[in-house]
Every structure is written in C-alpha cells, then in structure tokens.
C-alpha cells in the first residue's frame, strides 16, 4: 500500500491503457450482441411459411363449399400473450350462407357464453327458423347464427382466410354477431 502513483503518466502508457479498455468494451458489446442474435436464430420457427399459432386451418375450400347444412369442426390453437402461451381447444360451426359465402360461427351464446347445440323439434317449439339452441336459458339462433328468440345479438363469426386452396381463421379475432332492433 506504500506504492505511490507516478507523478506523471507518459502519453504512450495512456494510449496503451485506453486502447486495452476500448478493445475490452468492444469485445463485451460484440459478444453479448452475438449471444442475443444466436438466441433469436435458435428459437425462430422453422420455415418461413409457418403459421402463427392462433391461425387455425379448417380444411379445403372445395370441400367446405360443398357443405349441406352445418358442420361442427374441432380445432387446436395457442393463445400467446407476451411470455405466456396457453393451448386452446374448441370447435366452430361451419356452413355456406344464403349468398354462397363461407360462414364460420362461434358456438358461444351471445348472452351467457354457453355452447349452443343444434335444436331438436321440441326445443324449436314450432319456430322453424331456430337451428341452434342454448341449453343455459333457451336462446335460439338460425342456421347462419342470427338471433331468433330470447337474445338480441347473433352468434359471433370469424372471417375466413383463404390461402393456397385451404380455409383458415384467427381464433383470437371473433366478429360480434349482428344486433337486432
């Protein structure tokens, strides 16, 4: 501890020490940037055509356009919120509308969120427009998801995404059903 600092430092010694410090800092910055890049590349999904986990494939356009009536189609997807990933399993009802458009309907009742089911003749109670029935409170919906009895808003739908001859939809983006006056 009795060592004294030199009274003066030479220019050569100062530049040598400054160069070592600068190279060390550059090495640390470059090394950490390289590690971040390596991690990003390693965890990237394989293939540039990989679908986001919330996009679900329903089937081929040609097959779905030939539907007679309403089909129940099951799906599996993932809900990703920042760092949290949750698997989602469910189903949708798919049909071809009166204008020939493909309709993808959520099974959740617009009143309480219970899953609707196809209505039996007894549940229809003479109302032939009623196709879906909610077992929670008796709400009715037609075959295109429109509100018929008890509720004033139809079933939520999903926009069909057609790509490469297949039909997809985004599980996280339901379109609210039409409200009747």
Automatic annotation (TrEMBL):
SUPFAM superfamilies: ISP domain. It comes from the Bacteria. GO terms for molecular function: 2 iron, 2 sulfur cluster binding; metal ion binding; monooxygenase activity; oxidoreductase activity, acting on paired donors, with incorporation or reduction of molecular oxygen. The chain crosses the membrane at residues 21-40. Residues 92-169 form the Rieske domain. Keywords: 2Fe-2S, Iron, Iron-sulfur, Membrane, Metal-binding, Transmembrane, Transmembrane helix. InterPro entries: Rieske_2Fe-2S, Rieske_2Fe-2S_sf, TAT_signal. The keyword Iron applies. Pfam families: Rieske. This is Rieske 2Fe-2S domain-containing protein. It comes from Paenibacillus lycopersici.
């Amino acid at each position: 501890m009795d060592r004294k600092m030199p009274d003066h430092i030479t220019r050569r010694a100062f530049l040598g020490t400054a160069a070592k410090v600068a190279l060390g800092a550059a090495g640390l910055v470059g090394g950490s940037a390289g590690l971040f890049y390596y991690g990003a590349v390693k965890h990237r999904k394989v293939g540039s055509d990989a679908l986001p986990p919330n996009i679900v494939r329903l089937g081929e356009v040609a097959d779905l356009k030939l539907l007679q009536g309403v089909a129940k189609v099951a799906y599996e997807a993932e809900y990703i919120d920042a760092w949290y990933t949750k698997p989602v399993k469910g189903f949708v009802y798919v049909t071809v509308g009166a204008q020939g458009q493909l309709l993808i309907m959520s099974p959740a009742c617009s009143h309480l969120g219970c899953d609707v089911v196809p209505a039996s003749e007894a549940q229809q109670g003479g109302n032939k427009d009623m196709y879906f029935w909610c077992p929670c409170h008796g709400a009715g919906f037609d075959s295109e998801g429109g509100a018929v009895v008890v509720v004033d808003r139809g079933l939520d739908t999903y926009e069909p995404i057609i790509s490469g001859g297949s039909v997809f939809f985004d599980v996280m983006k339901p379109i609210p059903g039409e409200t009747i006056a």
